[in-house]
Amino acid sequence: MVQQTLAKELLIKIIYERVPFSLALKSVFKHNNLVRDDKIVISAIVGCVLRHYLVMNRIVQTTYPDMENEGVILMLIALSNALFIKKLDQAECNKAAAAFIKEGEPSVENFITPYMDERKLVPNDIEIGSYDFLSYRYNTPVNIVRMWHKQFGHISANKILRANSRPAPVVVRINNTLIRDDDFFEKYPEFERVENINGVALYKGDQKFKNHLVNEKHLAFPLPLAFKEMLDVGEVDLLRGLAIYCEYPNDIFSEFMARYATLTNVEFIANNINTVNNVKNFLAKNNFLKGVNVYEAQATSIITCVSKSVHTFIVMPDNSHLNLLQLLPDYFLRFDLEKLDELIANQRVALEEAAGQVEEGGYLMYLVDTISKKESSAIVNDFLNEHQEYVLIRDKQYFPYKRVGCSYYFAVMKKGSIDD
User: CA 117 to CA 258: how far, in whole Å?
Assistant: First the structure.
């Protein structure tokens, strides 16, 4: 069965070789001549295994402690197909996994049947409501579960976990340089207004947004609400200068595209070539290239890229990117929470270096796509304690269980008094 074989190949790449889901999918599909239905089934099987990986891997490894990696993957496919997908030939799935079972171990059928009857995967010896239980139930590393409970309390933490297990709402930014809000909602009733927020809509249509006419015409595009609300709070004066320091590809320029027909006097600094290329491609595609200077430099070299103080400086450092737990089925495999202290140290440096390039009366903005107090409010509070010349205008933590949910944090600070 080609579907089972390719699903196995993909999962080996993703789980054991740590190849990102999208890249693995693209590579395997590129080198195999598949019809659309095959691609859908393969993607569904792989996604299902990844969405339930922590608990299913636990029960497979417990039952078959010495099973080879390939056998574990085949057992995960057989279990996922039996319980959820039901698109592959179950007998063929069982046969493939059975080849890796040692003498005296349960057959595939005897392993799977109890889970078919009970419809429960978390082992009975795991205390209900414990960190381990929540980790297995919501496929989230236990150290992240523990961190959220400690920082936000049990109620909010459990809401985050539940929300992350469901598809994220499709929040789009209306391109107000091309269409007014009233005209947009009148012409496209499948979009809903977001209360008290202009220029933003929730997509409720049946087809995928990427195939919708408004996307093809660039009338709206997916964008987390944090980008717009951050810029709504602060002021961007292009004549007096805008600088952006960024350490990962993101959609900040989509927000600018919705606000300005042209961009001028913008300095964009990235610390890696992927982010540089990403922004250059976007600017060239949307005819913004002439108004933006793009540099590659580390945070400690910001001063070499900004010739004079700017009115607004936006800082978007690398972070834990826990927003991706809801968006990518494999992100829980690739993030190492032990690197958090290193990330925090770098975030402090980036904010410190940018702060020195803001003119009096100007704004310093900080944005991270995560839920982690150590990377958000703690960073900002420590900065403000050390820089009395800055005052906090507003900060906000976004949670995925809200109506326009996502996992972002922003802070807007002004250099000088608020009344200036």
Answer: 52
With residues binned 3-state (H G I as helix, E B as strand, rest as coil), the percentages for the chain, rounded to 5, are 50, 15, 35
pLDDT tens-digit series, residues 50-95? 999 999 999 999 999 999 999 999 999 999 999 999 999 999 999 9
249-291 tens-digit pLDDT: 999 999 999 999 889 999 999 999 999 999 999 999 888 778 8
Radius of gyration of the chain (CA): 24
The answer, yes or no, to whether residue 316 has pLDDT greater than 80, is yes
191's enclosing H/E stretch is: strand 191-194
- Block residue for tokens 């996992």: 407
Which residue type sits at 357?
Answer: Q
Q: Could you read off the pLDDT of 194-228 as tens digits, one per residue?
A: 999 999 999 999 999 999 999 999 999 999 999 99
| Contact in structure between 123 and 62 (CB atoms under 8 Å) | yes
Residue 338: is it exposed, middle or buried by C-beta count within 10 angstroms (0-12/13-18/19+)?
exposed
Give phi and psi for 263, each to the nearest 5: -120, 140
Q: What is d(CA 12, CA 112) in angstroms, rounded to the nearest whole number? A: 21
What 8-state DSSP symbol labels residue 168?
Answer: P
User: What pLDDT, on a 0 to 100 scale, did the predictor assign at position 171?
Assistant: 97
Residue 389's SS3 state is coil
Q: Quote the DSSP letter at residue 373.
A: G
What is the rounded distance in angstroms from the CA atom of residue 235 to the CA atom of residue 240? Answer: 11
| Distance separating alpha carbons of residues 141 and 49, to the nearest angstrom | 16
Looking at the DSSP bridge assignments, the partners of residue 414 are: 363, 391
CB neighbours of residue 299 within 10 Å: 20
